[in-house]
Specification:
By secondary structure, the chain is an all-alpha fold. The protein has helices at 11-38, 42-68, 73-77, 81-90, 96-118, 123-132, 138-152, 156-181, 183-188, 197-218. The longest helix is centred in the first third of the chain and has 28 residues, at 11-38.
Length: 224
């Protein structure tokens, strides 16, 4: 029997849009900060600022959808402030290349989880998530600059690979924290299969494959 996806307004959908809204808002803040603090040229500063502006536009889309659903955006975002703020605090980049790797790899692993959850919700919510998580040039921008820098100085490769693995580890840690606190959101990751271990294994295989592709695109080794 085919199960009906959670409808807009359900606690799981509200949680998904709440965490996504706060993720986009914090991405705007962090990218703008990194542009001002770390960008080596005005061209790079402008490019990263463009990405920050895009993230803010995405935040507004999700915020407006929450309001349309009858949810208070601030209340919907509130449960996720601690985990996302902790992740950003523990992964604050120390230089320009670390900022680019975080923008591409670190943000990418979190977005993969949002996409997985959106596979099991109503069509309108799923479409909004897809729109908000559109790449918008982030990949090309980060890959071009990181690969160029590694071509000039290959010794940076090991450090940046370790940095990327650290971010993923922190993301998984905070993700577990959120899942434990918000079971309705966590359930979206395995719906409609519930406790189907095969489906969970396939999900993690998809996440691992996507992460490996991002690392390879940068010229970095995914590692364990």
């Amino acid at each position: 029997m085919t199960e009906t996806p959670p409808a807009a307004g359900s606690s799981g959908v509200t949680d998904l849009l709440g965490v996504l809204a706060y993720a986009e808002l914090t991405a705007f803040w962090r990218l703008a900060e990194d542009a001002a603090r770390l960008a080596p040229s005005l061209t790079d500063r402008a490019a990263l600022s463009d990405l920050a502006a895009t993230e803010y536009g995405h935040f507004r889309l999700v915020r407006d959808r929450l309001t349309e659903m009858g949810a208070d955006p601030e209340e919907a975002m509130a449960p996720f402030v601690g985990a996302l703020d902790d992740w950003h605090a523990k992964t604050r980049p120390g230089d320009w290349l670390e900022a680019l790797v975080k923008a591409y790899v670190g943000t990418g692993i979190a977005q993969d989880f949002y996409r997985e959850a959106a596979r099991h919700v109503d069509a309108r919510t799923s479409g909004l998530v897809d729109e908000v998580l559109a790449d918008e040039g982030r990949s090309e921008f980060a890959v071009e600059r990181v690969r160029g820098a590694l071509g000039q100085d290959p010794k940076r490769t090991g450090r940046l690979a370790l940095w990327a693995r650290r971010m993923v580890g922190e993301a998984l840690s905070q993700g577990q924290r959120v899942a434990a606190a918000r079971p309705d959101l966590a359930a979206l990751l395995v719906e409609p299969a519930g406790e189907d271990l095969a489906e969970i294994s396939r999900m993690f295989a998809r996440l691992t494959e996507a992460h490996g592709k991002r690392m390879s695109a940068l010229g970095l080794t995914p590692g364990p």
